[in-house]
Every structure is written in C-alpha cells, then in structure tokens.
Amino acid sequence: MLQQVFIIRICVPGDVSFEELAKALHKQGSKDGQGNTLAYAARDSGGHLSPFAFDRRELRDDDVRIQITHCGICHSDLHQIKNEWAGSNYPMVPG
Prior knowledge:
- The protein has a three-stranded mixed sheet with strand order 1-3-2.
- It is an alpha+beta fold.
- The relative contact order is 0.21.
- Helices cover 16% and strands 16% of the residues.
- The chain contains two helices and three strands, in the order βαββα.
C-alpha cells in the first residue's frame, strides 16, 4: 500500500515573545489595514504556514463572538493547502 506523507512547516519568527503574540491575537478592530486577527496561512501550494494578519469586520447585532484558543489541521486541509483538488485560494488559513 502506498502512503503519502505530508509535511507542513510552521514558520514563527524567533524574536516574537509570547506576550507579543498574545497581544496580536487579542487586538481589537483595525482601521489602518494592519490586521486585527492573526493566523497561520499558506501563501501558495508549497505547504509552508506563516503568520498572517488580516482584518475581520466589526461584530453585528446578530453575531456571536467566540475566542478560539486551539485548532487542528485535518487531512482534507492538507489537500487544500497543496491545491491537490484544484481551486485553492491563497492566502489560506486552514483548520
């Protein structure tokens, strides 16, 4: 039986402290385009994930705010990251 092995590298700058990362993750709305949300994203089909800041819209009256502290990547995410099913859009935040 042929098995495929997927290797996903997560690149984190070595000079980022936990406090700086926590501050970025809890940043309130951004109006300057600097990003109010921090995630790890694939920029292309190479399989490398790196920090990615982006803006989320403001909460609306019928929205529910949740804080995600942990997430995982499933096997289908790996196919999407590598664009093996075609149609992947980058940057992509899997999980």
